[in-house]
Amino acid sequence: MYRSINRWVCTLGALWALLSPAAHAQPAKDSAQSCPPLLQHTMARLQDEKPQPLCQYSGKVLLVVNTASFCGFTPQYAGLEALHARYKDQGFVVLGFPSNDFAQERGSNKDIAEFCENTFGVKFPMFTKTVVTGRDAHPFYKRLASEAGASPRWNFYKYLIGKDGKVAGSYGSTTSPQDPRLVKQIEQLVAK
Q: How many structural domains comprise the chain?
């Protein structure tokens, strides 16, 4: 009888261990802990509007750019794609955020995706149309502006983010993707 009770207690103990919340706890390093606060957002991919966690870019050097299809700076798409292709194997990614904040991006997400790919051969990650300035700015852009001390003043405003997930610099729309200062800072950040 003692053995029966002992087995029953052991069985209940094993079941309790399997069903308890502690048994399903994540290891100490979960995605929220390894992802910097700035990147803890999910954005919809431009091509298919599927949600994409920005945490997937943790540990990379990022150039975040608000874009527009009908702007004098739109040809910068070609330079951004060249920059992305040149440094992507070193942990660098350009992230594009089309925005109509300056009334120069009126098309649908599908129209924007086709324009970027067909006109400039854009392969870097692009996200759906996003509000990047003002009270209604997406929380990601609000945080970028807060950390950099500046909001986008026009299309093709650039934020450079280091591997640590912190803003390392910002560049105005007139700064081309080939600007020596920008390229030098990218090279320094990917080398760290």
A: 1
| Residues tagged active-site | 71
What are the CA-CA distances from residue 83 to residues 1, 64, 116, 166, 177 (Å)? 76, 12, 15, 20, 7
The answer to whether residue 103 is domain-embedded is yes
Give the mean pLDDT per block of 10 residues along the chain (192 residues): 42 40 39 82 95 97 97 97 97 98 94 94 96 97 96 97 97 97 98 92
CA distances (Å), 116 to each of 96, 120, 122, in order?
A: 10, 5, 5
Beta bridge partners of 107: none
Is 139 inside any structural domain? yes
Q: Is residue 187 part of a domain?
A: yes
How much is the pTM?
Answer: 0.82
Length of the chain measured in residues: 192
Identify whether 4 is part of a domain: no
Helix-strand-coil percent breakdown of the chain, rounded to 5? 45, 15, 40
Range of the domain at 136: 33-191
